[in-house]
Amino acid sequence: MSWKHAIPLACLALFGMSGTAGAQVQGQVFTVKTASAYPADWQHSGNFANMVMVNNAGQPVSCLIEALLLSTDGNGSTRPSYREFPQGPTFLATPVLADWPTLALYGKLKSSVDKTGHLPDGTYTLTIHCLNIRTLGGQPFPDFFTNATFVVSTPQPPSLLYPPNESVIAVPNPVFQWTPTLRASGTQPAYRLRVVETLHGQTPLQAIEANYPLFEINVQDATALPYPVSVPSLLDGRTYAWRVQAIEPQAALTKTQQELIVPVGANEGRSQVFTFTWRTKVRAPGVAVGVGGPPEGGAPEKAEPRRGEAPPAPRWEERKNFADRLVEAMVARWSPRASHAGGQADFAVARRATRRDLRRALSGTVFATAYDSTESLFGPTSLPADTAAATPPLPGTAPLDSVPSPPQEPVAPVAAASGLGPEWLKLHGGASISGETYSRDGVGSPTRPFHSGRVTTGLSFGLMNDRLRMPLNALISGDQVAFRQNINQVGLSPRFRWAGLEAGNFAPQYSPYTLADATILGGGLDLTPKKWRLGFATGRIRKAIAVDPLVAVQPQFARNVIAGRIGYGDPLANTVEVSVLRAKDSAKSLEDPDTTLIVTPEANTVYALRTQGVLPRMHLRAQLEGALSQYNHDRRADYPDVHGHAFGVKLFRETALSSVGASFELLGGGFMSLGNSGISNDRLDVGVTGRTQLYGGKLTLGTNLGWRNDNVSRTLLAETRRKNYTANATWQPRPNLGTDFQFGFITSDVNSADSVASSGNISRIAGVSPHVSWVMRGVQQTLAASATI
């Protein structure tokens, strides 16, 4: 709401007051409906309180104005500041209402602002005291007080429940579910649900911020919504991203705020971005990542091969059939000898013998056909020429029928594609061009452009006989709209041996507490000499978005980052890494910022230390990460930074047939990372996950247990406790026949407080998905069904 609109409204409200006897100089203060809980905002933004001063003395007057903040948890006050007022009404916006840089807080108010930057939840009274009122000629007038009451509530953003992150579902119209956000008043805000399709080369955050949504809708008084039948259907094999944001309902906004999205709570009310892949055939559930899922706001950690090495073998749950899984389990029980060459040869010989013996054992059974029709995941084995022929089989690897197996000849590795062009310049990869035509009937706004085109490339140029590689990735789409982030991206990543450069759009992932999901438009470098890892990145991660009178949007300042990291060790084994992030919004990126904007230019610095230790013989892996942050909610304000901390521990024990893990994560109320869009602070998370296979691999069981408590800083009015119990199972009695089961029990309880009654939210999920496949005339057929309650 602009101050130009506020003046006539306030004057009409004070018309009767200005004409009362003896009230020659009077005023009235009023707070906005969405008053900011951050005192740093009050110095430059009109999102807290405003005042109208009416001077009927017949000549200009002067006075001293001080602001008093009163609550049951403490008080605050500013120093009196000198003001002059002409005849008639004068509007005072928040920045000039009082001398906010001199605001002194006491009691719990001071403790909360020092820890988190915002006032604790509760009810407050703002009192404006006008004293020493007199005309410029010296005629005195009585002092007066004016009061306004407001409620502060900074609840945690919603947590997404279903579909789970990076899951595969087959329900035609899945029911999106999330936990409620409860304010100090005990009420829930509205929720804005956005679902988009992720395109090639996009991160989930980039997709949710830039793409046209399949649908985007406000949900009131509910924490679940089925996929609407009126929007485009989900397509087989496509990946989708979704996010929920807690916002003020339209009924609670003023008329001039109807074109704005007003967030509620921490992290601007935004949840983490989840993704899911929709398929017509349900896949068996795999190993749960980490404990209680990936770090909040970050993608699950995936082990990537070092440059120049072959990619790692597929995970256990990704094996194509039970036979390959059993082979892996049997081979995993043997330990190679100390010699590297001998150990590699022994392992390969044992593997070949085991697969041959297993095939003989399966002869005449229902598994034989499936075993023969499925390509082995191990592939051909290449052994050194001087060890392959002379390596004897390991003890205990004789065939089941006691017939010695003939010696195996080493197989040369398959040469990679040579590319297109001469040796001094070769072209690898591919590109695609696609178009889309969309039509609709009925009421409402279209969710897609009627015509759009898209170009995607994954090309790589090889120079000097491929010694120097220059990958070029691009996404050009006609879906771009002005009030969202850029969907178009072009990135060039030249690399020579261990040295690489980045230019254009790229997404470095340093750690969950520094750079996690941001896509940078700028440049950087990536150096990996021997066991060292050095990285640097700088550029813009967010463009400015101004208020659009035709579309409900949330205005944003442009954001720039500079980050770096240095690490030593093997990323898949023992390693240590330090990373640093500096993010800063451009205060001048919005051309004509309104003083009542609910967003402010932020600044943030994060220092993170990450370590990992592995004990291969015991199948143990441990990860520790800690971080310190400095955060400024409004970098224009003369206000001290808020300091915060974060700490996380993960422990895993993984074998071929089972895995178990535990995690602990603590984020203080003042911790903030602008390089991770989905992270929320002021919480404690504990989780346990497990997986095992029974009955020769026919039965797979998995479970996730999670506990979460908010209000670590003790600044929220009531504590929220969340519990998450999920289990999944797969019964595969035959290779072409199986059933998947899913069970879930999620609770969210709020303790009672002064103005909040205790409340609870329970979500129960049960699902079953049988599927059968067969081959008819050389074509595989699949029949699947799914039911979820």
UniProtKB/TrEMBL annotation:
Signal peptide coordinates: 1-23
Q: Which UniProt keywords apply?
A: Signal
Which ranges are annotated Basic and acidic residues under compositional bias?
Answer: 299-316
State where composition is biased (Low complexity).
381-403
Q: Where is this region: Disordered?
A: 287-316, 381-413
User: What protein name is recorded for this chain?
Assistant: Autotransporter outer membrane beta-barrel domain-containing protein
